[in-house]
Write a structure and sequence with these properties.
This protein is an all-alpha fold and 111 residues long. The protein has two helices and no strands. α1 runs antiparallel to α2. The longest helix is centred in the middle third of the chain and has 82 residues. The radius of gyration is 40 Å and the shape is rod-shaped.
Length: 111
């Protein structure tokens, strides 16, 4: 409103209406804003913790899978190496005993 044509009484009434409005709704709006800010900070903190936790869990799972794969490959290489050694170390006439050798080698590696 234009303050030049309003009287001092009218200006005082307008200011008191404004102050009354702030008195009624100002604290409520400030409290609401503060609560929303706290909730956003808390939610974002939980989000970051969960995201970091999931990332660490995925890395740990990948490391476990990698270790398992390495162990399986080492066992396979050991079995293949011992099989090759069997064929080089024995006469071809003894190659028919290879299934017995493999059963024993598998039992040792897996048992």
């Amino acid at each position: 409103m234009n303050e030049h044509w309003m009287s001092k009484d009218t200006q005082a009434i307008e200011k008191s209406k404004f102050n009354r409005f702030l008195g009624l709704y100002g604290y409520s709006l400030a409290t609401l804003g503060l609560v929303i800010l706290i909730i956003n900070v808390f939610t974002y903190s939980l989000y970051r913790v969960q995201k970091d936790s999931n990332f660490e869990l995925e890395i740990s799972f990948a490391k476990d899978q990698n270790a398992t794969l390495i162990n399986l490959l080492r066992k396979d290489i050991r079995i293949i190496g011992s099989s090759v050694h069997f064929f080089y170390a024995t006469n071809p006439a003894q190659w028919h005993n290879f299934p017995l050798f493999v059963q024993n080698a598998l039992r040792i590696n897996h048992g």
